[in-house]
Every structure is written in structure tokens, then in C-alpha cells.
Amino acid sequence: MTNNPSTLYRGGVLYCPSEPSATALLVRDGRIAWVGADGDAPAADRVVELAGALVTPAFVDAHVHVSDTGLVLSGLDLSRVRSAGELLDAVAGFAAGLPVDAVVLGHGWDESTWPVPRPPSAVELGRAAGGRRVYLSQASIHSAVVSSALLAACPEAVAAPGYDESGWLRRDAHHVVRAVAREAVTREQRVAAQRVALGRAASLGIAAVHECGGPEISDEEDFTGLLALSGVGVPEVYGYWGELGGAARARELGAVGAGGDLFADGALGSRTAHVSQAYVDGAGCGHGYLSAEQVRDHLLDCAAHGMQGGFHAIGDAAISTVLAGFAAAAETLGTDRVRSARHRVEHAEIMDRRLIAGFVEFGVVASMQPAFDRLWGGAGRMYETRLGLARSLASNPMGSMHAVGVALAFGSDSPVTPLDPWGSVRAAAAHHNPVQRMSVRAAFAAHTRGGWRAVGLDSEGVLALGAPATFAVWSTPAGVQGGLPVLQASDPEARGAEDPTPLPVCRATVLRGEVIYEEGSSWLR
């Protein structure tokens, strides 16, 4: 028998489909020891009055970049600038408080929302920053504008694919300058940024995140340092290391999978996603970074080391290549073995019936971001500009994928889009294309149980007897219906990045019985 204190949470509204009338739960030793009605509650060492608050399983964000998220939250956030001039003003104001040898790091500008969709030049950035080195990643993180001083510090970028003398860099040239810019961030600054990001996640009812790292995204020290923070008063971190043929190294680093942002292509925002039909607003079909043979060999490497694999693939041409690699791997391993590994594809935005069928055949987990459609889908948005309206409305087909049994795990890709789990649930339920809308219940499951299942923890993400006591407590300004919040969504065509309709507010987040966030200083004390 254990002598650990128990805690009874009572007087709430519990999202517990197996016990729909439940209003209370008992936590002991990090697990749910009892769930039911207040009047039937057993004795406990401690009682927390929920005062009618909603209790649900906590969220999992299935695709994040924690250090970058923290740097944006504590640094230069450019998501609200609406012109090149506003961007330059923001850079000038931020740089004024930095040493002359500092690197100005910023993120989030999105030229597709500007009247003139063109960022400032390298020369203009340098002038605004007082000659300092400047690195500003576009919202997709697949391109950046940099200052003349940073270009001068990266002479090898000139010969790399994706270089442009204007300072707007893509592909390999972008990776070169990104690496140099990141070197300016000290270890102490990274740890601080990681704690900021994980703290924000906990305050939003997120109890676990999937970190998508790799040699082109972060570095090994950043990755292992983040994993060392996992679950210690902050959400748990499940790491994916995106290095081709790197299953053994991923295991050594403590990753749960050799995937995440292992790039099969780029992004729609930078026109580097590999699509089968040319971009409407630019020449070409983007870029495919992997062959089907490389995908096959990576999956065979993952099988040899008992690791989950995965790929970043956005465009239909890239996804087709990835699935061809899956088929080739299945010729060696057998389809059942491929399916049992639950390999992942991150983003999976441009899909058709054939590609969706491939996900079903090979048991691929689709790690998707509903906020992509909310921000860039529909008429008059970036996806229409890049793809045309028909392809725009067909993008992010999470409703069709859910309908045929594709396993979905929702996330934010933060800092590409903000940590915002209820906003993502609402975005999935209010997709710009009505055919692709999901029920709130299904979208919530994808953002909770879906994230746990994607890392092989099938028993998590529910309020049930014996399950881990991982949950969040919410105030629900719009009320509760069917055990979940009423998510009022305005006309998606009229919606912008700032949606004024009310979302639930997190009052507390509990991870395996430990309170990792509470509103104020003593709400659960």
C-alpha cells in the first residue's frame, strides 16, 4: 500500500465519455484512481474545488520547435508587421537596445499579407539595424531575409542553391546563414528560451510536445538540452531527429523517432514545397530533396534500429515520392511491419485520394496543423495566390483523411503558427472547405490522444480509471456542449489571424498528477 497523498478534484464538468455524468476524479501516484459523481467520491488527503470548471485530457502539440518558439516569445516577433516599412521600423527599434556586434534575430513576417509582397533588401536591413547582422525568418521558416553584414559573414552562401543578392534566401543558402545566425545564441539563452516556450505551452493546457529537431533545424546540444528539461515542472518533450539514415544517432540522442523535419521538400510560403503542378505566381514546381530510394533506405535503417521514422512533406509530388519509398521498403520488410512502426509525415498539405490511400495502406500518421488553413487557406489568402483557388480549397484535407481512418496528430509547427490548441481544434471544425471540416470531438481527439498515439502511448489522453492523471482545467466563456467547449467560429472567409470569438481559458495543467501550470499563484493550493 502506498502512503502518497491523494487529491480529489470535485465540482467540475468532466470530458469523460465512459462516465458522462462524472463531476470528480481522484488522483493518486500520478494516476486516476477513481472517477465519478461528487456524491460518491472517496475520501482524499486533499480536495480541490473546481467550481464548475471543465476538465479535459491535456493537449499534445505534435510538431514544435521549442527553442525558436522561445526566442520569438522573448525576442523580435514580426508576425504583425504588414509592410516592408513596418518591418524596418521594428528592426530599428529592437536593434537599438543591442550591442553593435549582436545578431538581430526575428521571425514571423509574411509578405502574403502585405499590399506590396516584397521584403526589404539586405542593404535596407543593415541600415535599419545600424550595421548589425540581421536574420529574419519568414513565417514558414523555409526562407529568410538577412542583412549585408550577415551575408558578408557567410561567403559560402553565394554559391549555394537558393541564394539571391537581395538578401531573401531559400534552400541551401538559407541553411548556411541560419547556422551562422544561431551560433550567436548562447547556451544560457537557449535554455532560457526553451523554458519560456514550455511555460507558455503549459499555460495553454499542453502537457506534451513533439520537438522536431535535426542538423538543418537545430543542433545536438540544443536537442539534448531540451530533452533534459522534459517533464521537470514543464510539459514532456518527445524528440524527433530529422537526419537521413540517422536512426542510430537519433537513438543515441534520446529521440523517439528518426523523422520530424527530415525534409522531402520545402514550404508553400517560399514556393519550395514540391508540387505536381506549377505555382500560379512563380515558375516551377518547387524542390524535392529526397528520392524514393533515399526514403526506402531511411525506413530500412529505422527498422534495423527499431525506430519510428518520418518525413516533412507538404507538396503532392514530395508526398508521392515518400509513399513510393514506403512501397519499396514494404517489398523488403512487408507491409505489416511498415504499418506497425507508425511512421509519420509532417504537414501532408497537398493530398489527393491516391495519396490518402497510401497513408491508409502503410499506416502513416499524419502530423497536421489546422492553423495553416485558418491563416492561409480560402479565397484571397496565400494558398490561393500560390496554387489557385481550387488547389487551395483542396489543401489540408484533414476531414477526408479522418473519414477513411488516417491517424491524425495535430500541432502548431510553432513558431510558424502560435501555440494555440483550442484555436487549432476550432480551425479543423471550421475549415475553409466545408467538405474538410471535422467535428469538434474528432479534432479534439487528434490534438490529445492522437499526439500520444503518435509516440506509441496508446493508453494516454483520456480521463479513465488507471490512466495517467494528465489533464487541464478550463473556464469556458461560450459554454459546454457534449462535454466539450462550444467553439463559436465566425465566417471563415471573414476571419483573420485574430479571431475575436471566445476560446476556453486554461486555469491549470496537470501532468501525471503534478501541477505544471496554474492560473494565478494558488488556485489549486
What does this entry look like structurally?
The protein has 525 residues and is an alpha/beta fold. Helices cover 33% and strands 21% of the residues. Strands 2-6-20-23-24 form a five-stranded mixed beta sheet, with helices on one face. Strand 13 (206-213), helix 7 and strand 14 form a beta-alpha-beta unit. The longest helix has 18 residues, at 316-333. The chain is globular. It starts with 6 loop residues before the first strand and ends in a 7-residue tail after the last strand.
Secondary structure blueprint with pairings:
Blueprint: E1 7-10, E2 13-14, E3 24-28, E4 31-36, E5 46-49, E6 54-57, E7 59-64, H1 66-73, E8 76-77, H2 84-95, E9 103-109, H3 122-128, E10 133-138, E11 143-146, H4 148-152, E12 168-170, H5 171-182, H6 187-203, E13 206-213, H7 220-229, E14 236-241, H8 247-253, E15 257-258, H9 292-304, E16 308-313, H10 316-333, H11 335-340, E17 344-347, H12 353-362, E18 365-368, H13 370-376, H14 382-387, H15 389-394, H16 398-403, E19 407-410, H17 421-429, H18 440-447, H19 449-454, E20 471-475, E21 480-481, E22 484-485, E23 505-511, E24 514-518
Helix pairs in contact: 1-6, 6-7, 9-10, 10-12, 13-17, 17-18
